[in-house]
Amino acid sequence: MKKLASMMCVLLLSVGLLAGCGGAPNDSSAAPAGGTAETGPKKGGTIIVGLNGDPTTYNPDFKGDDNGFAIYQNIFNRLYKINNNQEIVPDLAESYALSPDGKELTFHLHKNVKWHDGKPFSSADVKFTYDTIIKEKGQISGSLSSIQEITTPDDNTVVFKLKQNDSALLGYLSWYGCFIMPKHLYEGTDWGTNPANQKPVGTGPFKFVEHQKGVSITLERNDEYWGHVPYLDRVVFSIMSDSNTATQALYNGQLDFLGIEPPLAEAERFMSNPQLKAGKQNWPSRFHVAFNVSEGPFANLKLREAVAYGINRDEVIKKALKGVGLSAKTAMTPLYQWALNSTDVYPDRDVEKAKKLMEEAGYKADSKGMYLTATLDVFNSEPFPDIATVLKDNLKDIGIDVKINVMEGAAWDEKVWNNKNYEFTLLSGYQGPDPGGLYGRFASEGTMNIMKYSNPKLDENLKKGAALVKVEERAPFYKEAQKLLVADKPMVPIAEQIGVVPYQAYIMGAPTSPEAIQKTGFTEFTYVWINK
Known about the structure:
Elements: E1 11-12, E2 20-22, E3 46-51, H1 66-75, E4 80-82, E5 87-90, E6 93-98, E7 104-109, H2 123-135, E8 147-154, E9 157-162, H3 169-173, H4 183-186, E10 206-212, E11 216-221, E12 234-239, H5 243-251, H6 267-272, E13 276-277, E14 280-291, H7 301-310, H8 313-320, E15 325-327, H9 351-360, E16 372-379, H10 384-396, E17 400-407, H11 409-418, E18 424-427, H12 437-442, H13 456-466, H14 471-488, E19 491-500, E20 503-504, E21 507-508, E22 529-530
Parallel strand pairs: 3-12, 16-17, 16-18
Antiparallel strand pairs: 1-5, 2-6, 4-5, 6-7, 7-9, 8-9, 10-11, 11-12, 13-20, 14-18, 14-19, 15-19, 21-22
């Protein structure tokens, strides 16, 4: 694994909080990434990036919005962030220090940072952001339960006082729903309806210009950015809900970055096309079935077990993922080998065992061999409808008649993610940034726990695992938590995700390129320039 230059310290995700780490501010006057000694990058130009649908809000901490995330990444900053090498690196904070007892986490902020409206950024914005996330139960609030109090000794220092050591906290602060928000625009308002939610003001490398609903979102370079000033004049996100249409637009040169999940059947074609750059990349993300375990048919554990025995992972990978994926049978991503429980795993397909479980659950087969009908809600992004189609066939074999409900992303977010009004669904998503990430997805108070799952023993193990520092001490608690998940089955893993990220060959400094991979996060275009 590559290391950043001494001006920036990298924290490996599997290590958790260390005693301290620092780095100097980004130097925008240094030799630009991606250039040559003779020419250097070209400044200017506009890139067009595909986007699956309209964001519902530009408040990045309020609620989950997959369509907004790529935009948030370029408008806002966090204290620390996760780069494209899956490492935690400084962002608005240039360094941090952890007290010997692990109960005070102090961040030292960059100086002379401004909001896009010209107002100065300070530690007060950081305190306001996290106080609001916790008070208003923002999307990541459940993962911040270890925070007792936040203080601001001066404009450039923030101190998180903790109830107990939390080795996963730095990762949470670098992840979803933890972008720093402008206190001067949000204080004293309803953060769900504030006008800034439609015209966002951040501290990031690009500024918001306009949103034409159903058409595009436009950002422009922030020439006064405190870090590395972008080369591009503008980034335009073109809304294309159909992945096949977007793929054709990429081939035709109408898109510079595909931006949305591509049709997996195109993977080899992307990589063999001389007009494009593309490569396969193992992602810490996995496709899985999630159940509503508190109401509806899948409140019955026997039915969840039957589904687990009914899934043919190899068939899903072959037919729906076009061979681009790896079978997933553990309760946690194998990214964190030190904490992985590879003994207690989900079962292989066994149709007769599944039918027996259906009978034990109290169901009787009808004349067509069907025990029940269940609705599978999926959003219309590739490859979820295809996975759903294979699962429908798999589960028909065990006597479940699956009705597939394909929805626009925003509608799925509202029905499934926000209101939890569903029977079962399909998910993927970043499985990090530490094994402690299991808390957000599966703990009783986890803000990403759409399954309505609750097991006090699981909660206890996850809290104990986060309260320790050494991985060898943390590992047993996470392994026990995975054992409980396999037994309770609030979800069933299907496949580890392998991503293919295609873009035009004239694009330099892409987020996953060697020039930018350690400096930028997912879909962050700070170092991108156009070589034509």
